[in-house]
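Question: Send over one sample?
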Amino acid sequence: MTTIFRATAALALLCASLPALAASATATRAWDFKPESNAGLRVRNLMGNVRIERGDTPGFRVTANATIETASAAEAERLLALIDYRTSDVGAGSRLDVRLPREHFPKLYQSKGTSAWYAASYVEYLGERIRLVGDKDEAPLLRVDLVIRAPAGAKLEVVNTFGDQVAENYSGTLRLDGGSWLLSSTGGEGRLELDNGSGKVIVNGHKGSVSADTGSGAVKITDCECEIKADTGSGAVEVQGGKGSLEADTGSGGVHIQGFAGRLAADTGSGSVQARGVTDVTALDMDTGSGSVSIEGDLSALTKLGIDTGSGSVTLRSSAQPSMQIRIEPGSGGVDVEAPGATIRETDDATIVRMKDAAGHGVIDTGSGSVNLSFQ
């Protein structure tokens, strides 16, 4: 009897220590918004993935698929009914807000929430202060995944804090605002604005303009025909293929360019700038704190050149010579110039390189880095 009692007690203790089995419930809703809205549609969501597609109807259509996972199916169903979808479809613009009233959702599970008893993390959302916890047994897991279908030429703004936002073949004006998840667009056209906290930004095959801003996430833009403005705190900027113009600004991240055609400008704190296979570069403007600058390709179209580095070296290699005069002002680094037929003149504080009829003008200034130029 004693042995049986001990086994039963041990089994009860084990069962008590195991987490409760979770149950989930799902509900789907959809809305159609008028096509004549001049200001377009604004959508705000806290948790879930957002997918944006080209629609085949005049107006917007939004489908929400909400899922809640909690201790019991009854509780999950109860909480599903308490999600407050606020819509407005009058006046200049339309909107959809996925509200989570604090009296019903005081805490939510989020993988980045804290699970320590002595710490707490919160998110401010639509006037509500919701606590985030990292323990699934302490709060429900909630997500509202959205599919937004937009007509060609539409205006759309989406703010989604926890979750990826992915756009496919969007046409018009699109602004995506995220936290630390992925923001991406493929095959779009028009004006694209991507603002992320610490997540990645990926754009592929866009035509128009791209503005990408991240705190510490990387930016990758491929095969775009557009004006590109990329700004990161500590993430790298990578551009592959495409044509147009590029302005890149990073704190400590590098800028890497491959096969791009058009004007190039980059400003980095401590990151380097590397470009390979560039063409049709009419203007080149590079400024780094301690990073090097290395540019290779066809620079024959160059008319404006400005490169300034704190302690980084400068390397320019071109398959053809531009019509330009370049003034090189190195701090403590050496200067090496290979330019057949060019006139090279030394002064007390600079090296002057004059190629062809010197229609353009350029300045290279380094603190302690060397300068290497090769124009064939």
